[in-house]
Records
---
Amino acid sequence: MKTYNKPLPTIQPWSEEFWKGTKQEKLLIQECKQCGSKIFYPRKNCPECWSPDLTWRQASGRAKVFSYSVTHAGVEEHFYEDIPFVLALVDLEEGVRMMTNIIGCKPEDVSIGMDLEVVFDHVTNDIALPKWRPVSS
Amino acid sequence: MSKGNLAIIGVGEVPTGRYPERSHWDILYDICIQAVKDAGIDKKDIEGVITVAPQAQPRLTSEISFGKIPEELGFTGCKDVCICNAGGASTTNCLRLAEQWINSGLAKIVLIPHVTVQSTIPLQEVISFFATAGIDTQWEYPFGATFNGMLGMVAQRYMYETGTTAEEMAATVVALRKWAALDPNSMFYGKPVTIDDVLNSKMISTPLRSKECNVLADGGGAMIVTSRDLARKITDTPVFKLGHGGRYVGACHILRQDYFMEEGWRLASEEALAEAGLTKEDIDIFEFYVAYPFNQLVALEAVGITKRGQAGKFVLEGHTSPGGKCPCSTIGDAAGRGHTGSGVSMANYIECARQLMGKAGKRQVTGCEYILASAAGGSGMNTLMTVWGNKIP
């Protein structure tokens, strides 16, 4: 595999499951067993009720574009090869929002409200980043 | 009468821009000496120094944190020293802390300085610093998030929801640069731009073009503050802090309920005005420090100057520009002044003081009595509003 020079996520003990999940092409959302809150990003304790009793539920992998920005300049050198790339906020069917990249289409074809499906970008042997592409593609 | 007990009695400032030959300590000496002279006090009268934490300058931060300023400047009457870091909201919190030191009797007169030199930091290092300052290293940074990208998304959504046009967005830059063109301490002094200049500038993070983003700069400023009573004895032009309001909005954009910070600005300004015993109609200048030009529109709408979606037209018509009926950001906010990290809010408060002292030169708003000033930190973690006046209502 080609050397990956871009920043990798700084993983915490309570987010390890999430990244194990993406490695297996599963998008996992943390859920509180006590109050039922859906939690993203993952926490040590539920931000609503502080319960430490948290579990994981697989997301449908469907989302809509909340907003996006096509990046043309002003990034660190290791992102140059990706320019222009789409930085986006996507709203998952489960009601949580993620920051991500939209791939698999021309940047100019991205629009707010567009339907997306998750795709896993295996950037290293250990890490897969959840990215999104238009449902039709 | 408002509850606060703080007044600015003197300010000092060096021009903002790229001046690699000017060291941190050059600037610190100059601004502190200027501010003490401007206040008409003796250096031994400084009993406390509360410094705005500089960003991306760890050696300097360390020197300041561990007490170097009073020693270098010979503040022999100094009783305590500390540094405050809340990003762009640092100065506002330095003012709060100074008020506490003054009210508790720890210090009668406090110096609040800020210095930033970014031109000597390698560009990639600066980009890296800001790529992880106020941006989450697990959930945002791996996707190539930058301040421009994050705010590009806010701008995109704002245009989508309000129908604001690219021309109206660009008009915010034109208005700010008109003010900056009149400010000898601005990096864009004498350099106004047109809407075409903005729209023809290089695309950075859609919909934001280079002239709609900030240019990093070096700079520094200082304020001398004291109690209201002592301020009246020392100077004929005290500038009183009349009100303060604030809201925490959130660190990560993915979790921000108040995505445009609109509710935060509204509540903070209502609180600040209520404490001052004023309404928005009493305000002569809105000194918005909202970092990105298009955020001027959100601020105007949040404070209630225009209805939602109408601010773009309002700015395009020139109402916030020099000579307009609603002067906003009279040093041109970060886009006009140059972005000095945590220092833009310092420059903004110094401008409040200048306007209320009647010392704002060609930017002077005639008969200015009350100002509403904003500040925020990180990628928009909070909304802080303060009210200032040259009299107490």
---
Amino acid sequence: MEILPVSIKMNPILVGFSEAFNLLFSFDEEIWSIIFLSFQVSGIATLISVIFALPLGSYMGLQEFRWKKTISTIINTCMGFPTVVLGLIVFLLLSKSGPLGNLALLYSPVAMIIAQILLTFPIILGTTKAAVESVSSSVKELLLSLGSTRFQLWKSLLLESRKSTISGVIMAFGRAISEVGAVMIVGGNIRWYTRTFTTAIIMQTRMGDFGMAIALGMILLLLTFIINIFLTHLQTEEA
Amino acid sequence: MKKNQKIALWGLSIIIIATFSFGGFIYFKHQSEKKIILATTTSTYDSGLLDYLLPVFEEQNGITVEILSVGTGQALSIGQSGDADVLLVHARTREDEFIANEYGIHRTCVMYNDFILVGPSSNPAHIQNQNLTTALNNLISAGENGTISFYSRGDGSGTHSKELALWDSVGFTPNAFNMTWYKETGASMGSTLIITNENQGYTLIDRGTWLATKATVDLVVVHEGDPILLNPYGAILINPEIHSGINFEMAREFVAFLVSEQGQTLINEYKVNGEQLFHADFGNCDKLTGCSTTSTEIEYWTNYNGNFTGFD
């Protein structure tokens, strides 16, 4: 009688470990669809944000313009925007009773990507801007005195600051893949369609299926680790 | 560019391409042109019933059913904003209100199960299977003595509505603000059960979720069987005239399947650990759950569904 509660408390963790290995290597179709969807949604969102935020952020870091301080403050605020609020905003926009309801995008991966673009864009924008700004002005002057064009200057500064810029991208991707509030609200956790790691873990936990939840969590960590190996190599210079 | 950076770039590209192609493959494999969105309660999904029932329907009709598993309150508001095609919920008075406001055009009884009171095996509130009023009063006095805690869903779900109605029946108004023993979790049934278990408190739970998850908790049933605790589930068709893009015909096919002889038999046959979770009650609605429309119901659905007249 005294031993029983301990075994109940211990079991889910042990079960989770063995279940994680089973799931990964038995190539369970549902697990892989969850894995691919999570990485697709967060990957596409981060990629689109990079495409728009890198040029814009480096431009903002390079150039002086009116309202720069105010805009910077707004960007910094958006970098810490609660994801559930983003989810709520996208939900209200895409709902059939909302302004973009005719597009019928709610509860689809597209809606999740939109929410995650709103999440990742300010992070990449802010870090790129800060990274380009932090390259010392003497480097800028040197480059200009060597006869660089504006475009060449921009390119060199972006390369020069890539350590911090890639950190920003890693951070944005990390927040997107681990985010649960927004994808739950706009995706709806629909099986085979909009179920991601995080929403699946919430669901498994409330169903009392802790083993599966732990397994999913471990797989998520493992795969994020692998992606970050590559990103980190891109970031650090070879000695 | 350094050598290992090149490798890193290649690695990233391969991961991206692999993710997109494999993901796309699985995604398109499970998509079909015809699909409806069903907003339902956590109890029907978490208990595994829908995963058991829907493949049969999807196979026969070629319609994919996408499930939003939320509380009844949220399901009704999703239906109200036109973001679902059909609802499967359990809060009778609010369902009738929903129909009266013309957000939904037809409510059908599909099945029922019942609510039970669960608590720690030591049972500090001394609740036996006496009548429900005594049981509730025992809970209240034990709570006021500070010997027990009660965990309420507190989320506007069907279970929450039922719980409030039960307290109301003994003239008690719970208030989580100034009653320390009465706690609102604001979470789904499964999560609320876990919280109740961790704190060894009492809660009201639907039998479906209980049977599906009781193995993971250290709680026992302390009260069951009162007719007031019956928990009827209704399917509601969303009014296609309020919002554009409601898949009304397919939603009707789905409800017709639920109330068909096949659908009702499948509901009765669904068992977890050898126990039946839901009881089909189409065609027998007025006896069990207070619908007054058995004959009109049958007439309404026979047009879509042959001659099935429900179970006796």
---
Amino acid sequence: MGALTSWDMATIEEVYRKKKPKAFAADRSPSKAEVWWWFFMRLSGIVLLFLVLIHLYIMHLVDSGVERVNFEFVAERWDNVGWKTFDWVLLVLALLHGVNGLRVIINDYVHRPGVRTTVKATLYTVTAILMIMGTAVIITFDPAVGG
Amino acid sequence: MPEVTLKVLRFNPETDAESHFEEYRIDANPMDRLLDLLHEIKWYQDASLAVRRSCGHGICGSDAVVVNGVNRLACKILVKDLPSEITVEPIRGMPVIRDLVVDMEPFFAGYRAVKPWLITDDEHEPTRERIQSPEERERFDDTTKCILCAACTTSCPIFWSDEEYVGPAAIVNAHRFIFDSRDTGAAERLQILSSSNGAFKCRTAFNCTEACPRGIKVTMAIQEVKQAALYRSV
């Protein structure tokens, strides 16, 4: 038996060694993060069901719908701290619910560690920017600007 | 005797770059099992076909295959319940060793990880039986039925996309001990299943429940394990 040459057929053993499958390994540092995110998805899902439908109704269905939404409309609505809170809770829950869903999908389908880290880092950066921008608008909104 | 056409997905790692279907025509008896047809091929038509089976009676869990797109045990499905054209493929999500035989390692790695044995804090071997009431036994009866055939795990779309997912069968076998009144390893197992590739990767697709040849309510068991992990965390 000489050395393996390119025209030799690979044995099952060799094929197997090349394609050794990945398999489950528990996290090195156990955490309850997944448990809590799972629970958060259930809770936020229930709450969002109401928030989103109310939002949809007010912004798109009543009167002439989204056509009538302008600066004045927003200023009038946000004069009420309750609606400000409503919109902020909607922002936070919808953003976190959606982003966690994407995180889970990335974990499922993006296998190469480098690519996975990059995609997730991008996702989290965009999330942080959106969260900060949305929160800032709600907090610093000044009805006087519109005159 | 109805003639059936069996299309079998063949792969020989020593000669093939890709798997391909090969067709076999068989005079079958309506009461034949699919396993009998595979035997017919292997014994009389093409001895090179690789099939895995042991008991042939739905207990050993060796011959799970994809039959017309769904996971079934070849020994538990009859010709009369199948159309005259039958496709047979190896179960999905695990590397094919040859033809219908797959490498079960990703499956068993998940199984081993949940410590599928009785854990007690007894310092010594007990001198008498560990008593359990019929109600306590009933609590986990459904998940004792598992035969480790991998039909559930290899029907799971999450497992297809990520072999590192522990898989439904492993969670079922964890359930069997987590809800056993004699066992004290629940905390340990729930911690393992709370890891990022554990029970919370389940997206309740219900493929596992549909695939189980033993009729185990697999998705239900997984949800119960998730609940137990959550209640333990609260």
---
Amino acid sequence: MTAPPAPPAAEDAALALRAFALWPAGFGGLWLRGPGPARDALVERLGSAVRLRRMPAHIDSERLHGGIDLASSLAAGRSVARTGFLDEARGSVVVAPLAERITPALAGSVAQALDQAEPAARFGLVLLDDAAERDEAPPPSLTERLAFACDLGEASPAGFTQADLPEPITSPAEIPACSAEGLEALAMVSLALGVDSGRALRFAALTAGASAHLAGRKVVNESDLAVAARLVLAPRATRLPPPPPDSEEAPPPPPPPPPPEGEPDNPGDENREDSGTPDPDQLIEAAAAAIPPGLLEAIAAGRTRRGSGSGGGARHLSPLRGRPLAARQGLPRGGARLALIDTLRAAVPWQALRREPGVTRSGLRIMKDDVRVRRYEARSASVTIFAVDASGSAAFARLAEAKGAVELLLAQAYVKRTEVALVAFRGSEAQLLLPPTRSLTRARRALTELPGGGGTPLASGLSLVCTLGTGLLRRGYTPLLVVLTDGRGNIALDGSTNRAAATEDAAKAARAIAAARLSGVVIDISPRPRPEAAAIAAAMQARYLPLPQASAKTLSKVIGALT
Amino acid sequence: MNRFPFSAIVAQDEMKQALLLAAVDPAIGGVMVFGDRGTGKSTAARALAAILPPITAVEGCRFGCAPQDAGTCPDPCTSKRTAKRAVPFVDLPLGATEDRVIGALDLERALRSGEKRFEPGLLAKAHRGFLYIDEINLLEDHLVDLLLDVAASGENLVEREGLSVRHKAKFVLIGSGNPEEGELRPQLLDRFGLSVEVRTPQTLDARVEIMRRCASHERDAAAFCEEWAPADAKIVRRIARGRARLPEVETPDEVLYDASRLCMACRADGLRGELTLMRAARALAALEGAKTVQRKHVIAVAPMALRHRLRRDVLDETGSTTRIERAVVEVFG
């Protein structure tokens, strides 16, 4: 699942809560976006029915997996084992606050625990996602394994404090099974919306059954299928369904583009008509209506793709690589390695004092305070952010050269360990076409879709780059901004066509970049360099390079020299 | 444990085939599975490990020594008795530290009694089984290097912290990842024997079947596994027969020429492509019960053996599978 999850209506969120409470291990969990009283109420209500455990985002791998507790072992003089958090959590529901900050490494371990074969060995997971920016989201390896995603930003808490939670089931067989027609209808919805995960299919069938069970029925009917389509399939949509062939009304806004690939099945197949019960067309329509607005926009703009997630996500600095520094006091956990020699050196002077009279014990007495770990100074990964002026004033050929440079840089990304992001500004505002990635596949696709022409919203472009850059800086990356422009903005930040205001806004945005201490370079791509671009560079405190004859190769060489 | 049975996985024939080939001849060198989440990658790998017949190992050996290797591990194991154990399946978590993977000094003993003892890591645990790494493209590069090195040499050599230890670590490496989320360096990719691309089936019937089987497995896992046990048993027999036949399969010269011509036609870099292509073709022949490797075997395994070794061209968007198919037509008509 990619984009932000669906905000189903508050009733749908309550329904998701009730279904999840029915069988936490079966449904995997809830992804709750938007902090607020509604979310607190939901978690509190859930806590009254099942055992909740909180998992801090900074939990280290020793605590997670358990093992020898070094501190207690040294104090006790014998090995003291400690159960890991993942084992302790079995059979309960784990609540993860600040889910958008979970590292891929932590997510990997938690995902493994969610994949246990025996449901009794698993736990339910509730992700509390406080992400404010679009490019932040919990790791996709976790969200993929949770059945439901709810946006609770504006919901009222009342619906949850009074939610009528069901008794948990004792055996999965209590949940009614879908009929063959029901499964077929869900499969059609999944095809129409471009939902390609087997897990989503499984969750959909299970949710339909749970919906029937919650309503006290033994048979899954059409309304249950609609619930499954809304709660499970709609938030995972990667495309809009083709309009039903016989529909006379206007299709839902915005007009659905044709599906990107050959659609093997026609949802309006005549053979279905007489089979009666579930009407796939209606289901698809219901599901399409439940696609959250944010996701809808993203799909309409062609920005979501199968599997495109938040990518590598935040990467914490490795305590294992880099230039070695002096050892420091501390326990070897979280991947830090024990500095054996330094530990012994710290312990030796105290041996005489620590020897208890009358007790003969071989070996050194080592206390927790003696233990030293190694430290390394790691260089953080760098991200090159390209901001490309794709307006009419920047020559069309320039755009092609910029695209070529980005591809060449990416082709070397695995050598230089850099990632690349791409912002384009044209028309009325700037767009993040490619979030930071090392993937050539994604970059190439974003680039082929980059159109040219229109006004020059330079200010919007610079401020987007600034937001992106500071976000990356905060997460431990080293961003480098590469702005390709002629410096002549004509669209102000508010979208109006006013050259004076546009110039003023652009200068302001450039100064903000300087204030954020983001390093960068402005490449003047106009055929005859003029002072505007140089002024922008000066305000950004960035290098200024007039490159009237820039070709893809020289561009990538220049940038390569800077990174 | 009633895992989802291997034979009950809907479609995904290429992935299943690649896993079977790797099971017949582990020397092929691992399988890289590309695809989205939720396409049954780890389910298939786990299921295969679960149906293979148990291995015999020296009783209590921490390194899983086979009876004929008794005493060759660093401990060394001394027991004269042997015991059956399930084929190891190690799921390497993304956050695993180097210590956990290759093994490390047993800290507790070192600090308490000053004894220098090696604590085996996940590589020792995976010996004679499978090592599965989800999202291998997000794993730290130095770990990937190390894993591929051990997978290729079949031996884990530890030289650190005053330890000098070597132990056998032969396993089938299975990696999975989504190319949309970052690529694997081409040098590393090249060292995987086979690579396959998986995608959830796009037909209605297959999707309905997926939901149906998942639901029945969920409702009564034991009964579901029982139902598929005969089909799984058949696969186990095929693998066993394939393994037994593999040493006898003959490779005629003209097939070797076929393989070389194919590699040249699709400009697969390096010799590893040809070697893997031949190994995989032999394994397929053994699996199908043929006495000699034939051209059809080479053609059948060409995409999975060569796909990830084609020279990457920034400007050529043609999928590698298509390029191989084109080369097959070009060479063999």
